[in-house]
Amino acid sequence: MDIEHYYVEKGTGRPLILLHGNGESSDYFKGQIGAFAEEYHVYAPDTRGHGRTPRGKTPFTIRQFADDLLGFMDGHRIGKAHLLGFSDGANIAMVFAIGHPDRVDRLILNGANLNAGGVKRSTQIPIEIGYWIARAFSGKSESAGRNAEMLGLMVNEPNVAPAELAGIRAKTLVIAGTRDMIRETHTRMIAEQIPNSKLVFVKGNHFIANRHPAEFNRAVLDFLRS
To answer: Which of 21, 108, 143, 171 is the most buried (most CB within 10 A)?
Structure first.
């Protein structure tokens, strides 16, 4: 692997890896790390090119990030872990769980989507406009190139076919906000396609873990303990 992840580590017990969303860092989980570390060995890495983890040279894709997660787990001798992913982090966790079912204990997908069509158009259209503008200027500006890469993750990724979700063997919690930017029908479809999954909606928007940590944490811990 061409990068070394920055990560936060806290607690003891079964490993629980937290994966943040697009353009964020492990700081997103400030309301979760301490709470979950009371029962689990929490790892919260910054994704490639996010936070304090370098970009490296390899492709900037959800599948590359899933490969990076495998490298992170191998590097820390984590044979099997609970995975909790938010937004693009949920997409990374989902792709990882399909490709490496034996490495996932329990899976929590918060605000996941299989493709750009799963996002409400009111949210997706400005993202797509920003992406095409950034792409147009990426040859002249380094920051535009970085912006195009980040936005490209939300325009071109992760492109998971619904049938692929049958490959997830982990007990799964699909969790989203009642006013999420992911279409409710899309979230329900993901839960229906994953065998042995549970669906929970928490009052709020896409950022329920950050804005409503008590309710979010309760739902996650109830699931992990059950």
So the answer is: 108
